[in-house]
Design brief:
Distance between the termini: 58 Å
Oligomer: single chain
Order of helices and strands: HHHHHHHH
Shape: globular
């Protein structure tokens, strides 16, 4: 395997081995977030490199999209824009091929983070518009918050502090409303 040029796909036939591989890839996905937020380079590198070796076992899948997108983010952190964009293209291509709107939305979310990492703040804002128009609806609240935070950081890093503050204030208000609405629904459910 050479990064970006996987050998021909030969997916596993054994359902148990397939499920084990899926679980392992999901764990690597979670470890990549932990490594990022803990600033643990070794953990982050392993969590982004190791899944690439397992992708052929599953074939085209949501896990492949996630692994490619995580690797792209790592390349963004390392300021390897060309490689990052190539892996983002691969992630989005697989997501479209398998017809998985959630995987495509997450890949698009990663594309904003990747551009933020390598410092193209205008691209983050451009991608965020597409993200909000086409992909936001497919994601859970945590990923939606992450999607809203990307343009905030893009504005902040460009020195547009007032715009960044306004954006964050509106985001907080929006999610407070959502939390109140969800709380009211829960209370209504409990009362019946």
């Amino acid at each position: 395997f050479r990064a970006g040029r996987p050998k021909a796909l030969t997916p596993l036939d054994d359902p148990i081995a397939i499920e084990r591989t899926r679980v392992l890839l999901h764990l690597y996905d979670q470890v990549s977030y932990v490594g990022f937020f803990e600033l643990d380079d070794a953990k982050l590198l392993q969590a982004c490199f190791r899944p690439l070796r397992l992708l052929n076992d599953l074939g085209r899948s949501r896990e492949m999209v996630s692994a490619y997108a995580n690797y792209a983010s790592l390349m963004g952190i390392l300021k390897k824009k060309k490689t990052a964009e190539r892996f983002l293209d691969m992630a989005m291509s697989v997501a479209k091929e398998i017809g998985d709107p959630v995987a495509l939305a997450r890949a698009h979310l990663q594309s904003m983070a990747t551009a933020l990492f390598y410092g193209d703040h205008h691209l983050v804002e451009k991608r965020s518009k597409v993200f909000f128009e086409k992909h936001l609806q497919w994601l859970d609240d945590q990923d939606q918050v992450n999607g809203h935070i990307m343009p905030y950081f893009a504005k902040f890093f460009r020195g547009h502090f007032k715009d960044a503050l306004d954006l964050m204030t509106s985001l907080i208000q929006e999610f407070e409303k959502r939390a109140l609405t969800a709380s009211n629904r829960s209370n209504l459910y409990l009362a019946t």
